[in-house]
Design a protein that fits this description.
Blueprint (H helix, E strand, L loop, with lengths): L4 E7 L2 E7 L2 E6 L4 E5 L5 E4 L4 E4 L9 E6 L10 E2 L4 E7 L9 E10 L2 E7 L9 E4 L5 E6 L7 E3 L4 E4 L10 E6 L4
Parallel strand pairs: 3-11
Antiparallel strand pairs: 1-2, 3-6, 4-5, 4-7, 7-8, 9-10, 10-11, 12-15, 13-14, 13-16
C-alpha cells in the first residue's frame, strides 16, 4: 500500500490529479543525519545540502519520524510528527561523547499536498529554546519526565542549553541534587 498526497484541480472539461510525495526532507545543516519512521527499523541517510522524497508506504503507521546524527554513539531522537505545520527544536544525543551532541531545528510546512521538512542548524548551532542555570553550590541532574535515562549534569554555577528529547511526550523537567558532587 502506498499512501501518497493527492492534489486535484478541475479545468473546464478535464480533471487533473497530481501525485506527490508525502514529505520532502531537506538537510540544511553541516551534519550527516539519519532519519526513520517510528515503528520501523529501516533508516535513510540525509547528507548535508541534500533533499529527498519520502513516501508513506504504510498509512496505518502514524506520521512520526526519528532523527540521529550519523556518527558512532549517536542515539535516536524522540519521535516528532511531520504532518503538523510548525517548528520544533530537537536534541540529538551522542551517548559516548556528549560534546558531539547538538540541537537542530525542524521546520514543517505544507506545499500543495506535500509536507516540506527543513532541518536547520546555524553555524554556531541552533539557539536552544531553554537554558537551565544552576546558581547553587550543588551539582544538579535533570531530564525530561518520561524520556528515559537521558539525564544531564549541571555543575554549580554553570548553565546548559536544553531542548526536548521527546517533543511528543510530557514537557516537564525533573531536577534533583547530587550529594557530594558525585
Amino acid at each position: 500500500m502506498l499512501d501518497l498526497g493527492v492534489a486535484g484541480a478541475v479545468q473546464a472539461s478535464k480533471s487533473m490529479v497530481t501525485i506527490a510525495p508525502g514529505y520532502v526532507m531537506r538537510n540544511e545543516t553541516r551534519r550527516y543525519l539519519h532519519y526513520r519512521r517510528a515503528g520501523t527499523r529501516e533508516r535513510f541517510p540525509l547528507v548535508p545540502g541534500a533533499e529527498g522524497a519520502v513516501h508513506r508506504y504504510d498509512g496505518r503507521l502514524p506520521p512520526l519520524f526519528l532523527f540521529r546524527l550519523r556518527q558512532f554513539g549517536a542515539s535516536w531522537s524522540g519521535s516528532i510528527a511531520l504532518d503538523q505545520v510548525g517548528t520544533v527544536a530537537l536534541r540529538l544525543l551522542n551517548r559516548y561523547s556528549p560534546d558531539l551532541s547538538s540541537i537542530i531545528r525542524i521546520d514543517c510546512s505544507l506545499q500543495d499536498a506535500t509536507f516540506e521538512v527543513h532541518v536547520f542548524e546555524d553555524a554556531a548551532g541552533v539557539q536552544a529554546p531553554y537554558r537551565l542555570e544552576n546558581f547553587t553550590f550543588l551539582t544538579l541532574m535533570f531530564a525530561q519526565d518520561g524520556a528515559g535515562a537521558r539525564s544531564e549534569r549541571v555543575l554549580p554555577y554553570h548553565s546548559t542549553e536544553f531542548a526536548w528529547d521527546e517533543p511528543m511526550k510530557s514537557r516537564k523537567v525533573v531536577v534533583h541534587a547530587v550529594a557530594d558532587g558525585g
